[in-house]
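Objective 1b. Sequence-to-structure analysis of ABC transporter permease.
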Amino acid sequence: MPSLVLAHTRYLMLEQIRVPISILASAFFPAVSLLAFVVPFAGGDPQAATTATASLMFFGAMSGALIGLAISVAQDREQPWNPYLRTLPAGPFPRFAGRILTTVAVMLVSVIPVLLLAAFFTEATITPVRLLLGLMALVVGGIPFMLMGLLIGFLMSSKGAIAVSQIMFFPLAVIGGLLLPPAVLPGFIETVSPFTPARGAAELLWAATAGLRPNPVALVMLAVWTVALALAAGWAYRRDEGRRFS
């Protein structure tokens, strides 16, 4: 089984490399945002630069997790190769695991431009241990968005998945405080923000990279969203399986 997972991961990674638009999209906007907004306005403040860098890192990773996974799963379902794979004795797990590992790899690659720009153009500071913790927090915080991407991908066509995932992505990022510090958000958004998964992931990442005390409500809601989306994604998969193969 591990060899099958690795084979699927290798195949899916080659797909990403041959058509790298999702990786470029996940990395480009956060990097440009850092140069346009963080460097001139918060680049000289070590803590502000560090937290802003962490936020933009997750912004790019969230794009790869939510939009990338939703579109790829929906497109897979429309290919004749996918039903054949589901009939094989190994079952769906190897390809499913390969898809998740590929998405995690895309998430981690997407943060590299932001990290490099922050290192060269801002006063952001971080130790190797905190960087490792930050990357771990980024992956953990990305789990609900991967599950959200699976949910959308199993429920919708590829065209629908493109539209819905993009419509959901930006408001979640804004309300979650990834583009603006929570302190400057309008009052009603600041009230709602801790109840969104993006804010929980951001709080986890800020705690890991900058040592800030996380908002406990945001962390609890991150766990709630993860469980709820896991159940919903599992239901969507069984629904798709029942409709197409029963």
